[in-house]
Amino acid sequence: MRTPELKLRIPQRLAALTPYQPGKPIEEVEREMGLADTVKLASNENPLGPSPKALEAARKALLSAHRYPDGSGYYLRHALSAKLGVPPRRIVLGNGSTELVELIARTFLGEDGEAVISEGAFVMYGIAVQAAGGEARFVPQAPGYRHDAAAMAAAVGSKTRLMFFANPNNPTGTYIRDHEMAHVLQRVPQEVLVIVDEAYHEYVSVPDYPVNIPRLERHPNLILLRTFSKVHGLAGLRIGYALVGSDEIAETLERVRSPFNTSSIAQAAAIAALNDDEHILRSSSTNLTEMKFLEKGLASMGVSFVSSVANFVLVLLGPRAEEISRAMLGQGVIVRAMRFFGFPEAVRITVGTRSENERCLSALARSLRQAGGPGESGRGAAEVDEVDEKQA
Questions:
Q1: Distance of CA 383 to the CA centre of its chain
Q2: What angle do CA 21, 22, 26 make, to 5 degrees?
Q3: CA distances from 272 to 104, 242, 384 (A)
Q4: Strand pairing class (135-139; 160-166)
Q5: Are 230 and 261 in contact (CB under 8 A)?
Q6: Is the pLDDT of residue 372 over 50?
Q7: Mean per-residue pLDDT for 132-145?
Q8: Helix segments in 109-246, DSSP class H
Q9: pLDDT per residue over 191-205, tens digit each?
Q10: 382 CB contacts (<8 Å, ≥6 apart)?
Q11: Residue 389 confidence (pLDDT)
């Protein structure tokens, strides 16, 4: 039977849209490849898992799963307010921080609006802007795979409505310094929303990383995005939040937001995770230790990488990067090839546990030998120190 011709006209901006490509679940990879005991280091997940307190809270909340959740997220917003010092009315919950990116674009871009974004930034910013009918103005990166904050501020034009900063940035792991953030907020007009995605901020230990929450009172056009997917280990529950500098902007987002965009289970788990300081500290300190171990192992192989302050590292493997990632997959180690993110000669490796990192380094070393060694696939260990100096 012949399929009837579709008469509906798909908007050109959507027909041309390349959807986000998430990493495959372990179960799917093992089924497709015939593997077992696979290590997944591809999606920047917390290898220690969720907070035990969050798991217990989620189990209790499941008993009321037949009821609709609190659409306003009252208790979670008040818990966040008590923890962070931001009024509850200026906290907007989302189905992960990515939904908030889409919500902001849909709400504030308008038909002819423009968003300023760094090249090499998290790809969802450009996708959300295009899906909302706006135009993305991409600004080249600064040396060291960093956002060029000054150039981004200078790129603001008459049609600019939004600016997106990923801090730290995914997938490079680099960050915007405090004085750079201050310059942007002083330079950018009040009618332009400055969105700073701080999904990985709990992992950062450098002294010049911006502390942006106090700036919300001075800059009503500032929005901070955060998530429970990373250090809190609740990626599968999909819950994040926006800290907003203006009552009016927060109220507008609430009007557009779907009324039940976060589940009762996610809200309960998030409240418990937020106050589990022991789990947060253990996750961040383990990441710091294991990042050093992973970077030392990469350097010992002569493999170049970008110094990271998050829970992943961008590894520069040259033109055979995708071949090497497939070879690692064949050994049961999943890393993320970065062509879709704009880095076709790199892979992103999430920092795992010690045993996971050891398996990863072993699989990478074996794959490099098969590909001809780091002399053919990478840029040499010298670039490691060079990038460190640019970011330090």
A1: 25
A2: 135
A3: 27, 18, 39
A4: unpaired
A5: no
A6: yes
A7: 96
A8: 124-131, 149-154, 178-187
A9: 999 999 999 999 999
A10: 304
A11: 40
Residue that the structure tokens 């961008």 belong to: 314
Cα(first)–Cα(last) distance of the chain, in Å? 64
Contact in structure between 127 and 20 (CB atoms under 8 Å): yes
Is 139:119 a contact under the CB 8 Å cutoff?
yes
* Domains located in the chain, CATH noted: 21-49+278-391 (3.90.1150.10), 52-275 (3.40.640.10)
Burial group, residue 88, by CB count within 10 angstroms (0-12, 13-18, 19+): middle
CA distance 188 to 193: 9
Q: What is the mean pLDDT of residues 248-271?
A: 97
Burial label for 129, CB within 10 Å (0-12, 13-18, 19+), is buried
Rounded to an integer, what distance in angstroms lies between the CA atom of residue 88 and that of residue 244?
10
* Torsion sign, CA atoms 197, 203, 206, 211: positive
DSSP-derived 3-state class of residue 145: coil
Amino acid identity at 306: V
Closest CA to 303 of 293, 295, 311: 295
Encode pLDDT of 54-94 as tens digits: 999 999 999 999 999 999 999 999 999 999 999 999 999 99
pLDDT at residue 147 is higher than 70 = yes
The beta strands (E) that lie in 103-239 are given as: 114-118, 135-139, 160-166, 193-197, 222-227
pLDDT tens figures, 291-325: 999 999 999 999 999 999 999 999 999 999 999 99
SS3 123: coil
Give residues with Cβ within 8 angstroms of 151, minimum separation 6. 139, 140, 142
**Do 341 and 119 meet the contact criterion of CB atoms below 8 Å apart?**
no
The percent of residues above 90 in pLDDT, for the chain, comes to 83
Place of tokens 């889409």: 102
